[in-house]
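Reading a protein record of the kind used here takes only a little practice. The integers have meaning only within a learned vocabulary of local backbone shapes. With that in mind, consider the following protein and its fold in token form:
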Amino acid sequence: MPTTRFAPSPTGYLHIGGLRTALFAYLFARKQGGKIILRIEDTDQKRYVQGATENLIKTLSWFGIEFDEGPYLEGEEIKEKGENGPYFQSKRTEIYKEHAQKLLDEGHAYYCFCTPERLQEMREQQQKEKKPPMYDRKCCSLTPEEVKSRLEAGERAVIRQKIPHDKLIEFTDSIRDEMSFDPKTIDDQVLIKSEGFPTYHLANVVDDHFMGITHVIRGEEWLPSTPKHIALYQAFGWEIPQFAHIPLLLNLDKSKLSKRQGDVAAEDYINKGYLREAILNFIAFLGWNPGTEEEFFSLEQLIEKFDLKRVQKAGAIFNLEKLDWFNGHYLREKSVAELADLVFPLIDFDVKKDDPYFLKSVEVIQTRLTKLEEAPEMLRFFFTEPSYEEELLLNPKMKVTKETAKLAFQKSIETLEKISAEDFEDEENLKQPLLDLAKELELKNGQILWPLRVALTGEKYSPGTFEVLAALGKEKSVERIQSYLTNL
């Protein structure tokens, strides 16, 4: 059965790049009728962050990415499901030590006693000679007797992988096609650290083998490590999985996506009010395309369309304007009631959720929203009285003066008073009388509509005058216009 995995480290938030990797792995598994495993790579205890695992699981679940095996939350308690556990690498250290010993016994690994100081000197010398920084294999030639003696004497040691130098390391990447590496350029990586914990390289190969992983889908940054992993598979005599290295995420300036230039945590985008479907749709298109002109896909449709062969090699630009565009589309797709449910928890002023006036106000701003966090400020003028601002009211560009504004207010009140409260609910019933008024007064439309919109909303940018009048209703609209007229 095709089996893939997502294997994050619990070092904090879920990076948006990690979310994309999880999504691609999930889409692949579901498309192939296979399964996906969640594994927590927590061998680096120095970087472990309390609560990070729970946060990872909650975030992935929020996006609808469900795993067939691995840790899950039951309430606030972490449990595990599946036949290949445990799914936390910190619980599997004996397995790694056992397999490191096999590599030692068969000559595919060796003890290294070099001190940090000696390694630092070696690297500095390599830099001076403009050589690539890699271990010089000083300890590779130690005899078994020397190793035994030094270990018995209590010397600290790591276990290093012994990369065979006799032939090229080759594999076919699902995205990058044929790959070839000169083994002499590959470092003898540490497999077991001096304190007994495995490094990523040994642990992930051992786990992928015993968990039956057939396809390893991961970020491009792991590509240089792949020949080391293939050498380990060969040393153990295990079947090598199919690798697929997805492209880096890049800022607009094509530098690697980093926190210095914007938010990189998936939950930051959740907290800002981006919708699940918008984020998923957006990140799916970061390095992949369906081969058609279609742009909007549900998770189910993404599963149907996804193909690793359509993942690009080049880095993918993380363009927030595109995310806003996706989000605006999905916000407009919501019913008014659905959108009101999403907006209501964000409101910080007095409003009743089931009030028809609240639903009407949400409907008015719906086409202007790009993300939910914008809603409270857009809605505020519906529920709080705007304050008088002469600077905003007087608009030289539209030739709005005190005199024209006063005239517009006086005559607009008279015009609006003639319209019934029932007819007031339809903006089309308001449009023609006010446009006719502008003609009658020999004013431009803007000399009527601008002061009215300022009086009604107190905002420089807002929905149009007719929309606002219909949403506020006759009584509230006339009261606000009269208040501005009084201030004038």
